Each structure stands twice: as C-alpha cells, then as structure tokens.
Amino acid sequence: MALAHSDVIEKKSSIDLKTQAFIGGNYTNSLSGKTFESISPVDGNLIAQVAECDVEDINNAVNAARTVFEKGSWSRMAPSKRKKILFNFADLMKKNILELGLLETMNMGKPITRATGDIAACVNCTKWYAEAIDKLYDDVAPTGDNLIATITKEPLGVVGAVTPWNFPLLMACWKFAPALATGNSFILKPAEQSPLSALRVAELAMEAGIPEGVFNVVPGFGPTAGKALGTHMDVDKLGFTGSTEVGRYFLSYSGESNMKRVSLECGGKSPNIIFGDAPDLDFAAKMAADGMFGNSGQVCDAPSRLLIQKSIKDEFLEKVVEYSKPWLPSDPFDPKTLMGSIVDQTQTERILDYIDKGKSEGANVLTGGDQVMQDTGGYYVNPTVFKDVKNEMTVAKDEIFGPVLCAIDFENEDEALQIANDTHYGLNAMIWSNDLNKVHKLAKRIKSGKVLINSVSDGDMSLPHGGYKQSGFGRDKSLEALGQYTQTKLTLIEIK
Ligand code: NAD
Fold first, then answer.
1. Which of 338, 342, 352, 267 is nearest to 304 (CA)?
2. Is 135 exposed, middle or buried (0-12, 13-18, 19+ CB in 10 A)?
3. Which ligand 1 atom minimizes the distance to the CA of 221?
4. Are 115 and 169 in contact (CB under 8 A)?
5. Which atom, in ligand 1's list, is nearest to the CA of 245?
6. Which of 162, 269, 305 has most ligand 1 atoms within 8 Å of its beta carbon, as the pocket-test mutant?
7. 104 an active-site residue?
8. Is 162 near ligand 1, meaning CB less than 6 Å away?
9. Does residue 246 have its Cβ closer than 6 Å to ligand 1?
10. pTM of this structure
11. Cα dist from 230 to 67, 234, 251, 259, 481, whole Å
C-alpha cells in the first residue's frame, strides 16, 4: 500500500530518538558528557543533541568489541546460527522501515520514499550475506600423501567503519553485514550529519540476538572519533566510505598505528558517454537526469560528466533538460517528492560556489543553478545542467556532490575515451551505443571499477561496487566483500 503523507507525519511525531552512543550493548553518554547538535536540513531546525564520542569512548567500544570477540560467543558461533540471527536483524529493520527511513529524512533531507527504499536495501543486503555464510567452504591444498593442509578463512577481530551521510545506513550496512556474517565485532562511526538511524539500528541488532559488544555505534566528529578508530592499536580493519581527501588520512592512520587493513570507497566524477547510435536516446536522457538528480546529486557514482557526441548534442540536451523537470526539490516528508534537500548549509554553499565557478570559467547554465525554498529554513538547490563544459574546467574536475550535471561534447570514440579517463577518479562509467565492437573496446580501456553499457541496473547485491585510481580500493557488495573481513590461515599436519 502506498505511503500517505499523513502517516509519515504521524510516525515522525511518535519517534523516540536514540541520541546516546551504543557501546557494549548499552546506550551511554560520551565520557566527557559532550554532545553535538543534529540539525535537520529539511527546515534548519535542531533535531536533537547527540553524544559526542572521543578517544576514551572509542577505547571503551574497542574493549567491548575485543572482549566479546575473544569470548567467541559470536566469532565462533556456527555460521548457520549467525545466519538465523542476522535474518532476525534484517526482519527487525524491515518491521521498523518507516521509522528508520524517517530518521534519515530528518537527518539529511532525503525524500521519505527513497529513504525507506534505502532501508529495504539494507534488509536485502543483510539477508544476502546471512544467506551466503553457511554455504562457503574452506579449502584443502593439493599436497602429497604425507601432508594435510587446510586453508581456512577466519574473522579479523575488531572491525571499525567510518561512513558518510549520503546513504547513512546503507553505506554502513555494506560493511556491517559482511563483517558480522564472517564473525567479527563491529564499531561504526557514522557521519556527524546523520547518526540517528545507526543509533536506532544498534538496539535492533541486540534485540535480534547479536551478543552485546558485537555491534557498537560511536557518534562524533571525524578528526576526533574517526581518527581514534583509524589509529587504534587494537582495531584490525577499518572500512571507510567518504571523500578521497579523508580516505588518504586512513592510510596514514594505519601506517602510524598497527598497520590495520584499510579499504576505501571514495569519491567519483563518472563519465556517461552518449553516442549517436545509442539504442534509445530518450531512455538514455532520462537515465542521465535520474542518475544525476536522485539523492540531490549526492551520490558517489553519479554520472556527473555527460559526454555527448557532437552530432546529437542539441537534441540530447533538450531531452535531458525535459527529464530534469520532475526533479524540482520539494518537501522530503511527502511520499510524492522525488528530490529533497542538500545535507547542510556548508554543502549547499559549496555547490553554489561550484555553480558560480562553472559560469565564470565559461560554461553555460541550461537549467537550474539556484538555491530554492529558502522560506522553509532548509537547504535546497534545483537541478542544474551546464553545457559547453570543457574537461579542464573546475566543475568537470572536482566532485561537486550536488545536483549539477556537466555536459561535455566529443567528436569520436578516441576523444570520448581520452576525456573519460582524464580524471583522478575511477568509480563508474556508462556507455550508450548499439555498436558492440565499440562498446567492448571502450569498456576494456576505461579505468573504472564499473562500466555500465546501455543500462543502469547495477543495484543487485551480487555485483561488486568500488573504484579504480583515487576512488579507492576494496569492494563493497558481492562475495568479494567477504574477503575484506576475513584472513587466510594455513594449518598443516604431517602424517607419519
Ligand atoms: P567525508 O570524507 O567528509 O566524511 C566521511 C566520514 O569521514 C565521516 O564519518 C566523517 O566524520 C569522517 N571524517 C572526516 N574527517 C576525518 C578525519 N580527519 N579523520 C577521520 N575521519 C574523518 O565525506 P562525506 O562528506 O560524509 O561524504 C561524501 C563523500 O563520500 C563523497 O566524496 C562521496 O563520493 C563519498 N562516497 C563514496 C562512496 C563509494 O562507495 N565510493 C559512497 C558514498 C559516498
């Protein structure tokens, strides 16, 4: 049944917000007693004061996580039992889907329909890894008769995760689901802009039967709480999703501390290459707009550089502008809304600065380009399409992380490839063409973790997500992610 606006408002008024850290199975204040303000970008109002964790709180969380790991109540539990508990966890997320979705809408202004869609994706992700875990066998090496050598996968121990605000729970879930499935203890430092869904989900994990200390959430700021996790001597692995700039810190944190494993899911500036012989230009144009303006453009693999073959440039851009029209920002709590707010004032100002820079460097605005709905007190920018962009311009080089599409034209395949790869990012790429030879050649030469051809269907959990170059390394989703939360042990027996 479709969600009604009145149901959303009613539910919102009845939510019991969890604002303390969740450590060792209990909600707790930060040791310093400090809190930080959680402001809603929907209307600029204060939602709550949230516990501000720092080094000592992280120490406590790591102790709790380590203690339960060594005890073995989760780490050595039979995979089939962990699977059942993770299924309970997923079911509880599903049961509380509207509340969890609402917490994300309140925190970062994502439209409620999209937010509940993200929670549904968390349910699916958790079940996917739970379902996988009792079907993976270890190996016996092909040695001679006098040796038995087993090669087994063991959990790493204490896994930390530092995550962004654009998909608050889903980016965390891509890490906690495989980490928990493989038997690790987990500590999440959510983005300071969007801690509320993670804080609520922590108690659902306990309710599902995950032992206390296995799932911890420590809200706080990056340079304090995030750094404390990254530099902790007893954290075995740190999974990071966020900007390339901050991703670099985690490599140093690891080197400065215990050489913990690090995986990085960072930024992107993905090319979307439209050839004149695309099978359905209309669909490609709709996907160009939908891909850019969904989540207000705050998507790591958004197709933000639109490369259009010169022969169809004007016709195609007309369609893109047409398809950008439904993406006008509106009330995020209304289930009919497609595009909500920008996450906060800082990000809004950053986006508007980039729009100014684009204009001053010679690009032309075809549509949008302004802040809107200021009367709400919130932060909204309308969908913006730049034409006449050159790949050297700042708007084509930097990740804007807002609803700003940059159209660049090209003559032929070689030029398209050169522009596509002329970036230090390498997360995603799209190609629209009917010429199989051409797309195969290009797909092999494009330096990115994903190349989608005449399609945007990369959501399935079986498909790996991650980058080349400075978009990071390691993969979320798919069975490949399980390898990031286990280590390989050789055990050898000599038979006399
Ligand atoms: P961000 O890098 O500013 O913050 C991410 C996290 O890092 C937050 O939890 C923050 O508190 C923490 N952090 C910040 N400074 C830190 C420091 N000095 N030490 C330790 N931790 C620190 O990113 P953001 O603004 O939250 O998110 C947007 C970015 O995330 C974009 O670049 C986007 O492309 C990227 N992202 C990537 C993926 C992917 O899968 N590749 C997915 C989503 C978002």
1. 267
2. exposed
3. 11
4. no
5. 2
6. 162
7. no
8. yes
9. yes
10. 0.98
11. 19, 10, 9, 10, 20
How many residues does the structure list for the chain?
A: 496
Residue type (1 letter), 453: I
* Predicted confidence pLDDT, tens digits, the chain (496 residues): 689 999 999 999 999 999 999 999 999 999 999 999 999 999 999 999 999 999 999 999 999 999 999 999 999 999 999 999 999 999 999 999 999 999 999 999 999 999 999 999 999 999 999 999 999 999 999 999 999 999 999 999 999 999 999 999 999 999 999 999 999 999 999 999 999 999 999 999 999 999 999 999 999 999 999 999 999 999 999 999 999 999 999 999 999 999 999 999 999 999 999 999 999 999 999 999 999 999 999 999 999 999 999 999 999 999 999 999 999 999 999 999 999 999 999 999 999 999 999 999 999 999 999 999 999 999 999 999 999 999 999 999 999 999 999 999 999 999 999 999 999 999 999 999 999 999 999 999 999 999 999 999 999 999 999 999 999 999 999 999 999 999 999 999 999 9
